[in-house]
Specification:
two-stranded antiparallel sheet, Transferase(Phosphotransferase), domain 1, about 55% helix, disordered N terminus, 2 domains, mainly alpha, three-stranded antiparallel β-sheet
Length: about 450
Amino acid sequence: MTQISELIVLKNGKIINYLAYRPRYKLLAEINDQHDFIRDSVLLASYLKNFHQRLKLYHGNINPKRIYIQPYGLGNLRIYSSAVISLSHGGEYEDVYQLNYYNKTYASKELLAKMKDRNTIQKFSKRFLMREDYHQFKVTVKRVSKKIRYNPERNKILHQFLTSLDDSEIETIEQFFDKVIVNIAFQISLFKNLRMHNNFNFSKGLVASIPMMINHNISKSSWFFRNSRMWDAQNSHYQVELSENLLLNLMILQDLSFEMAYNQQSDVVYETAIKSICALYDQRFATPEECRAQLLWLDTLRTFHQKFFSKLVDTTVKNDSSIEASNLIQTGQILFIQKFQELAAMEGQEQLRYMIQAMIYTLWRTIERINVLYSDKKDPLLIKYFDIVEYTLILCTLDVEFQHRMKLHFVKIIVECLKIRILPIECLNYTPYAKFISPQ
């Protein structure tokens, strides 16, 4: 495929084609894994909601063979359509829109009945077209789901998603979001499912991109947010969610830790964001200090990145072998080890587990950043970072099951990244497959 991204073809001022995809996408029709299916179905709903609300477009040709999803769960989804209509004029119920095309297999009975009359030019209202897109979305998801094998008792999140499609009170994608996906319990279940079964994909930032897509009041796209230097703690979505559910927002903050601890260079901006977060928790804790204590894992992660790893990167890139540089790195290493050990010494090791989750679930983004920015020096940096992740896992001694699960995630991410050749082969040493490395 040629690389094309959201190309709208106009003729005499009218949309005649809409094409948006990228190389190496897979079709929704090709999905057969239950966990990939729930992830990509939510992404499809997110994409269509954005299609309606931000782009003000009617799709009109939603079907499994026209939906392209980028491998590895980056949250990128593109749809080909020759039926796109701009919904920028006319009222909600005015019949002013004429169809360019419709797919008989996925169209609603109501649409098919109207299009039978070939002697009359049929026009439709915005409300009708919004309902039509939702009908095609339902038919598409249900058709793909027929080949997905799953146990409703063991995969309750997928069962809930599919049964909600038949809710008689839901007529549009937007209503589906408001009633199903925006629901906090659904989000928590979804993120837990992704962490458990799509952990490599999850570590690319899916958990933070979905909340951005599901907030109807967001003016900036999820990808602008994902690439921004710092999370805006005044964002209305997070104000609502942080005050309502600590577990959900712990997951979101862990995912954002890559931006907050690693990307953000300004201590002033970081502290401002932390104060904003604590202000949202003011009714949960007696004092701001109590709230800040719940974010000790994030402060520790930032100390590691700012005081040690960023300094290691600088000296490695500059080939600085001076005594001053060595002393600076050694001082930073002593500091972060002390901080890590303090977390490990805390009762229950809860803060240590939070930090480990943040490191594992943002690991792919760390790997990618090192590959992109320091390509000729990446190998020693990656190996050192993996040494530290492995050391952190060793510190977790009070919850063996958690330690084992995080280690499995760590190994899977390494294996997947080796497959796409963004890690040195020596990284197999952190997996059970080290014996397959050929001796030098």
